[in-house]
Amino acid sequence: MKSGITEKRLKDKRFKKTEEAILRVFFETKECISVKSLAIKIGVARSTIYCHHKSIREILPDYEKYILKKYSKMVRQLAHKKEKKSRVLYINILLFVLRNKRIFEILLKHRNKIVFEEMILRIKPMIEGEMGLPENSEKLYKVFASEIAALIEGWGEEDFAEKNMSMVLSDIVFLTKTARTRLVELLD
C-alpha cells in the first residue's frame, strides 16, 4: 500500500483515527521521535505508521502535498469560470482554508507559511493583470504572496469565525489593489 494522505484515506474511519493519534504524539513530543517509539506510544505496528507516512520527516510534507494538490484542482476549476476577479478568487481561497481547517492547523503548528505562499503563487496568472505588475516581477510577487500568506496565517491562528471572513477578505483585496504601489516602492 502506498503511503501518504489522500481524500479517500482521510474518509476511512480507521485511517483517520490512527492518523489523529500519530499527529497527537508527533506534536506533543518535544524531542526527536522514531517510528518504533511512535508506534509504541499509539499502540500500533510500525508497518501501520509506514502505511501512513514513508518516515517521520514526511508527515508535514505529506500534508503539504495533499493540500496543494487539492488546492490546484480548485484553482483549475476557477480558471475556467468567466468571472476571475481577485475578490472571487480570495473568497474561494478563504473558503478552502475553512473547509480544510484541520490540515491548516497541522501545518501552522510548525509555522509553515510556505504552503500559503505556494497557494498564492498558483493563482499568479489570474491576478497579475489586475495588480498591474510589470513583466519579470517575480521578486515583487513573492513579497506580495508573503503578505497574503501572513494575513491568512494570522487569520488561521486566531479564533476567527466564518463571519469574520469578510474582514480578512477586505484586507486581502486592499493588499491586491495597492500591491503595485507598495511593491514598486520597495525597489526604490
Attribute tags:
mainly alpha; 12 helices; 188 residues
Describe this structure as you would to a colleague.
The protein has 188 residues and is mainly alpha-helical. The protein has two domains: 48 residues; 128 residues, no CATH class. 73% of the residues lie in helices and 0% in strands. The N and C termini lie far apart (54 Å). The model has no long low-confidence stretch (mean pLDDT 76).
Summarize this entry quickly.
The protein has 188 residues and is mostly helical. The chain is 73% helix and 0% strand. It is elongated, with a radius of gyration of 19 Å.
Helix and strand layout, with pairings?
Elements: H1 7-11, H2 13-28, H3 35-42, H4 46-52, H5 59-79, H6 86-99, H7 101-108, H8 114-121, H9 124-131, H10 138-157, H11 165-177, H12 179-187
Helix pairs in contact: 2-3, 3-4, 5-6, 6-11, 8-10, 10-11, 10-12
Whole-number total of structural domains: 2
Give the C-alpha Rg.
Answer: 19 Å
Q: What fraction, in percent, of the residue positions are helical?
A: over 70%
Low-confidence stretches: none
How many beta-strand segments? 0
Distance between the termini: 54 Å
Order of helices and strands: HHHHHHHHHHHH
What's the pLDDT, averaged over the residues? 76
What characterizes the major β-sheet?
A: none
Residue fraction in strands:
under 5%
SS-based class: mainly alpha
Number of discrete helical segments: 12
